[in-house]
Amino acid sequence: MKITKLLTSVATAGAILVSGAVSSSASAESTLETVKKRGHLRCQVGQPQPGFYNLDSKGNWYGSDVSICQAVAAAVFGDKTKLEIQSTTSAKRFIALAAGDSDMLSRTATWTLLRDSQLGIDFTTVNFYDGQGFMVRKDSGIKSAMDLKGAKVCVSTGTTTELNLADFSRTNNLNISPVTFEDKNVRNQTYVKGGCDAMTNDKSGLASNKAAFANPDEHMILPETISKEPLAPAVRHGDNQWADIVRWTVNVMIAAEENGVTSANVDDMRTNSKNPSVRRMLGAEGNLNEGLGLSKDWAYNIIKQVGNYGEVYEKYMGDGKLGIGIPRKGSQNALWTKGGLMYSPPFR
Amino acid sequence: MIVLATRDSKAASAHIRPKEEFNFFQDTRVRSAFYQILTVLIVGWGIWYLISNTTHNLDRLGMNTGFGFLSSTAGFDTDFKLIEYEPGVGTYWRIFLVGALNTLLVSILAIIASTILGFIVGVLRLSNNWLVARLSLVYVELVRNTPLLLQIIFWYVGVFSVLPRVKNSFDLSGGAGVLIINNRGLYGGWPVPGDLFWITTATFIASVIGTFFLVRWARKRRDNLGLQFPIVKASLALLVIPSTVVFLLTGSPMSWDIPTLQGFNFVGGFTLPPAFLALLVALVAYHAAHLAEAVRAGILSVNRGQTDAAKSIGLSPNRIMSLVVIPQAMRSIMPPMISLWMNVVKNSTLAVAIGYGDLVALFMQTALNQAGYAIEMVGMTMAFYMTISLLISWVLNIYNKRVQLVER
Amino acid sequence: MGIVNATKTPARSAPLSEGSVLGWLRINLFSSVANTILTVVALYIIFLLVRGIWVWGIQEAVWSAESRRECFKISKEGACWAGVINWLDSIFYGRYPREEIWRINVGGLLLVLWMAPLWIPRVKGKVIIGLTTVFLYPFLAGYFFSGGEKGIFMQVMVSAAIVCLVAITIHAALGFFANSSLLQFLLRITGADKSSEKNQRNVLLGLLAAAFIGVFVWQMSWQFESVTWTKWGGLFLTFVISGIGIAFALPGGIILALGRRSKLPVIKVLSTTFIELFRSVPLITVLFMATTMFPLFMPDGFAINKLVQVIIAVCLFNACYMAEVVRAGLQAIPKGQEEGAYTIGLGYWGTMGLIIMPQALKVMIPNIVGSFIGILKDTTLVSIIGLFDILGMLRAISEDVFWRGLHHEPLLFGAALFFILCFAMSKYSRHLEAKLSTDHKD
Questions:
Q1: How distant is the Cα of C218 from the closest Cα of chain A, in angstroms?
Q2: pLDDT bucket at A15, cuts 50 / 70 / 90
Q3: How far is B79 from A193, CA to CA, in rounded Å?
């Protein structure tokens, strides 16, 4: 009696498991539909990194990459708060995106050929140009990265930073010995206390770290940039519509700055602007939104709720209260009209 | 169901043993076979299910598999390695070896030091000196009740990073320059044997063999005649004196490779980075505290009568401890010690947090990030730790069997 | 001839009594030269430590400031506790919405209320209370913590949990004040205590159904805002992970240990392999495997979140450790107990559940508490794989724009917090050990 009962229950359980597996694997809707059905966007950032994504003492995420997440949420839902921020370590960021844990990745991920083609993800468009550099103490007498022969250099593990350092050392025959760290705080502490002669990182990271030292004036960033680090949001491979949405969200923010549209004047611009490009972008004329599958005021929502690229930069990367003080003028992150690389394709 | 059972019993009664009713569902052998087959089926199905999913997913995501990556070159460097490795030339297999050796080095040193310290603190816990006993207690409780990860970070950031800088290095050997410590690590001289050093080596080997026979002779004499021989002093003398004399007679054929300040850093001799020192100290402090508790419990578990009896036959307190109490205490100290040693190896993986290049940090973290191959790399890392753990428990269990009470 | 001592033997001075301060000092601190040296060295170490901690941590410390810069302005030599104080909510509750924090507090209080009767000596039916804690409380807590839409199953479980909690509380109060039990009390007030057993059962079932329906209707009006797991963090998340780990470790460990001692070879081999596999690898590799490889193990489109992955890993890992504790406990029970149980006709589960386990569990309690402390401490490793448990939150402080680089103070605060928790648990385990000990010590 017992046995048959057991057998039946086991069979039922097995059947449920198998059927569950089958039904769940049969879902193949577009990312936009999935996101809309769920009611919020899942956006992946990293472990707190000032400027890009960071936690405040109230438990809110803020930063320039978080703003991209908010902008996409605003574009899809018309509400930037319909957003779930996920934070992962750099070790599993791509697998988490490829496996479907998150809808998009907006974190300091460098756009490389290998990542774009082999990891099941697609990069959209660059929202920050960075490059690896070195920081040294002013009294060390080091004036150039070529002076670092035989030096100990503090570096974070598990990123391209480490590879670039090894390459740089080999090409220039510098025999640099790296001191690797998993924890950024420990790396900074070691450098400040003289455990390394120099510290290497993306220059944005160096600048923000320097600002946090007890005596920032004792340190300086060397002029050399030893790598190209174009940082770009990424999406899962294979859904072009979704990739377009993310790509054009970034473009809207850049184009808005170019045309002088800010979160403060966007209402006025939508009704009164004479510029046809602005009118098309903000949905006052034409139907550019249709191909993306979004509402007519998607770009308006982005600017209204999040702001244009310049506003976001000023707030988190520049000299704002939450900013980390990286000058934009003359850098690659300035608009193309001001000598930088920030350039949006036309809205037509 | 009842119908079924009756039919079965009828069928059974037709067989040779009519008395014993064979009930298919009540028979223990049938039942146990059924449960076992069922378990095998479920487990087998589970494994097959996972494997098929994994292969499907790897295929879908276009991820690479196989162990071919082991022979391709790795592009990153590490600052502490026991064997030759150069970025761009060394392979991932080399990285695996570097990491494994680093893990083994810190684990072995930590095991030795924590065992010694653990015994000392364990005895101090029972000290007559109230203050010392209390201090030991505070140490044990503090260390046992906070996470090891926090402690490792503390030792690294709070202690080894605040040592003097390179220019103000502290010479531990009092000006001889053989042992130097600063916030970049511990630098030590490394002996370089000269041409005639082999004579000293040969003498030393001869002394070791001599000592071995001396010990055997002394033990035999004790057993036969009941006479004590100062075995420790005699063998120490035999080991040290002839070698030293020969060494000096051949003109001290040994030089030191002494660390000297060149450019930014000390060069020459050996170097132990602060991450290594912090990890070592943290592991030793943490596991010694755990061992101390086991030692204390072991000593307390020895029956009071044993000590009294030993006193009554006139043994000195030291001898009571070393000949009577500790050997018996070992019985209850051994099992926790086995798991402690295994824990040292496993906990050395927390090196990740402070950047010591152990196996997990180098192979499962950095290499995995650069090359992918998650399944292979995690698998190899786990296999390494499994082998070490099984080895430790196997060796110590042999010893454990020897000290256990043989009941007659 | 007699030998007479002409001079009187001088009287020896009376031994210092241990009661006097001087005597105590002499015996415990200065009984010999070596001891005196030890004492002096120890005193010096204590002096250095206490002075250092006092100056840095209290005398020169800054308790209220807006940012680390401000801390520096006030004092460069002291600790900047202001940052920790500023982040206190995040340290305890992570990113949980601040206006919803009461839900966590209530959830915690309910657990205390639920489990308190286990420590009241006169209350009966502790096994049932313990079991309901493991099987019903998680539903109630889960709903409180995550909120959102609840399905019909969740509604039923939540209602059942509330009924159970109320019953346990009344039962405990009755047990404590009136030395009675809930069943007796209910039967008395309904006047059914004299009627037949069947009648009594019907009355009780009726009361139960009435209570359940009442609660069910009541809870339908609850509207909790949904809080996803990504907002969980801090000490709260540490407690959730280690709590589930602890709750699962014991039953899982018992099953695995029984499997390892089983007479069926297949089950024995499987359990042994499983246990040894997990025990021989570091937790960090298991966590790493869970987070990087779990997504690959699962069928297409079947994503389980990172928290669940971590919890599964922690549960399996700790069950294997607990299995060895249980096995050691089982080995301490004489074989005669098992044989005796079989003799009186108990089956395998009867023998284990009624005879062996109750005795073995008693032997194991100190070790079980020890394992729980281990689980709590090990949970901090989840910060390495990117969850914002308490250690993750403490590290996040030093990234906050206002508190950049504040590193030592949060970690020390965390260490102190852990010390208090773990030390209390270990003291309690010692107390239990002494209480449960049936040996005769000489």
A1: 28
A2: very low
A3: 18
Q: Give the pLDDT of residue A30.
A: 87
Same-domain pairing of B397 and B290: yes
Q: Which residue segment(s) compose the domain that C207 sits in?
A: 99-226
Mutate: best of C266, C393, C425, partner B, most B CBs <10 A: C266
Pair C236, C209 in one domain: no
Surface of A (133-152) touching B: CB under 8 A: 149-152
Is the CB of B131 less than 8 angstroms away from the CB of C408?
no
Question: Is any Cβ of chain C less than 8 angstroms from the Cβ of A182?
Answer: yes
The answer as to whether C247 is a domain residue is yes
Q: Of C223, C222, C236, give the one whose Cα is nearest residue C96.
A: C236
Sign of the four-CA dihedral B324, B327, B333, B337? positive
Give the pairing of strands A234-236 and A121-123: antiparallel
Q: Which of A276, A59, A207 is nearest to C94 (CA)?
A: A59
- CB of B79 within 8 Å of a chain A CB? The answer is yes
- Each residue's pLDDT tens digit, C21-40: 777 777 777 777 777 888 88
pLDDT digits 0-9 by tens, C121-164? 777 777 788 888 888 888 888 888 888 777 788 888 888 888 88
* Contacts A159 to B, Cβ<8 Å: 369
Q: What is the DSSP letter of C94?
A: B
Are residues C378 and C279 part of one domain? yes
Instruction: Specify whether the CB–CB gap between A55 and A61 falls below 8 A.
Output: yes
Shared domain for A210 and A252, answered yes or no, is: no
Same domain, C340 and C302: yes
pLDDT in tens, A191-212: 888 888 899 998 888 888 887 7
Residue C62 DSSP label: B
**C75 at the A interface (CB within 8 A)?**
no
Is the separation of the CB atoms in A50 and C404 below 8 Å?
Answer: yes
- The verdict on C163 and C311 lying in the same domain is no
pLDDT in tens, B9-45: 444 444 555 555 666 666 777 878 888 888 899 999 9
pLDDT tens digit sequence for A74-86: 999 999 999 999 8
| DSSP codes of every residue in A26-77 | T----HHHHHHHHTSEEEEE-S-BTTTBEE-TTS-EESHHHHHHHHHHHHHH
Q: Which of B1, B161, B355 is nearest residue A157 as measured by Cβ atoms?
A: B355
> A334 and A237 in one domain?
yes
Q: Say if residue B57 is in the same domain as residue B127.
A: no
User: Residues A17-50: pLDDT tens digits?
Assistant: 443 333 333 345 788 999 999 899 999 998 888 8
Mean pLDDT of chain A: 84
Please give the Cα distance from B80 to B353 (Å, whole number): 16
Over range C59-70, report the average pLDDT.
Answer: 86
pLDDT greater than 70 at residue A235? yes
> What's the number of CA atoms in the CB half-sphere (13 Å) around residue B169?
26
